[in-house]
């Protein structure tokens, strides 16, 4: 089995990298989907505030690696051999993935400038994005969770300031994705 943990700040282009790798045959698991399901199970709207509050509360109640635990459970319930985990945000999550998956786990960081990220987020219109203040609050929350350290310690990184074709070309050149 091969598992790539995808990390990066909001709006860095993780979804575009995910789409390219999915097109190359990788099975995608979005950690955020587990949070969204929990928010919906509680009868709450999928707003940036509710998503952040539920994610924080679950980390406090069930441990900082709760979303990694649920992700590993999902991976083990499927037959695929190549997984891309979209949304790794903390060292606790990386530690859980490494403990459960060993050398099969690699962290890929997608990098982009704050200005490019904000422009992307404000332009894409997803219900969980919100406005400029939501962007600032979300960055602060994810940094508090430890995403900055995960990015800094990643095994592989890609600077996403170009086009979708640049992402495709880069991914096709990487042996790890083959």
Structure class? alpha/beta
Please tell me the CATH architecture by its name. 3-Layer(aba) Sandwich
Rg estimate, integer Å = 16 Å
What number is the mean pLDDT?
93
What is the CATH topology? Answer: Rossmann fold
Main CATH class: Alpha Beta
Tell me the helix content.
55-70%
Tell me the number of strands.
5
Q: How many structural domains are formed by the residues? A: 1
Portion in beta strands? 5-15%
Please give the alpha-carbon distance between the first and last residues: 13 Å
CATH superfamily: P-loop containing nucleotide triphosphate hydrolases
Number of helices: 9
Shape: globular
Q: Tell me about the largest β-sheet.
A: 5 strands, parallel
Strand order, sheet with most strands: 2-3-1-4-5
Structure characteristics:
single chain, 178 residues, alpha/beta, Rossmann fold, 56% helix
List the SSEs and their pairings:
Layout: E1 2-7, H1 14-23, E2 27-30, H2 31-41, H3 48-62, H4 66-76, E3 82-86, H5 91-101, E4 105-111, H6 114-124, H7 132-145, H8 147-152, E5 156-159, H9 164-173
Helix pairs in contact: 1-9, 2-3, 2-4, 4-5
Question: How would you concisely characterize the structure shown here?
Answer:
With 178 residues, the chain is an alpha/beta fold. It is built from nine helices and five strands.
Structure description:
- The protein has 178 residues and is of the alpha/beta class.
- The protein has helices spanning 14-23, 31-41, 48-62, 66-76, 91-101, 114-124, 132-145, 147-152, 164-173, and strands spanning 2-7, 27-30, 82-86, 105-111, 156-159.
- It has one domain: 3-Layer(aba) Sandwich (Rossmann fold).
- The chain has 9 helices and 5 strands; from the N terminus they run βαβαααβαβαααβα.
- A 5-stranded parallel beta sheet has the order 2-3-1-4-5, with helices on both faces.
- The two termini are 13 Å apart.
- The model has no long low-confidence stretch (mean pLDDT 93).
């Amino acid at each position: 089995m091969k598992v790539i943990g995808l990390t990066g700040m909001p709006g860095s282009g993780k979804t575009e990298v995910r789409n390219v790798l999915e097109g190359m045959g990788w099975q995608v698991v979005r950690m955020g989907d587990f949070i969204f399901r929990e928010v919906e199970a509680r009868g709450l709207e999928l707003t940036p505030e509710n998503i952040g509050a539920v994610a924080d509360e679950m980390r406090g109640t069930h441990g900082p690696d709760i979303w990694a635990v649920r992700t590993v459970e999902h991976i083990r319930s499927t037959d695929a051999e190549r997984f891309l985990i979209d949304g790794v945000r903390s060292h606790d999550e990386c530690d859980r993935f490494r403990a459960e998956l060993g050398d099969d786990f690699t962290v890929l960081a997608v990098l982009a400038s704050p200005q490019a990220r904000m422009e992307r987020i404000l332009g894409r219109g997803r219900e969980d994005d919100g406005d400029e203040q939501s962007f600032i609050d979300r960055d602060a929350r994810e940094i508090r969770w430890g995403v900055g350290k995960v990015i800094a310690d990643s095994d592989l990184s890609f600077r996403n300031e170009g086009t979708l074709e640049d992402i495709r070309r880069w991914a096709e050149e990487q042996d790890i994705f083959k």
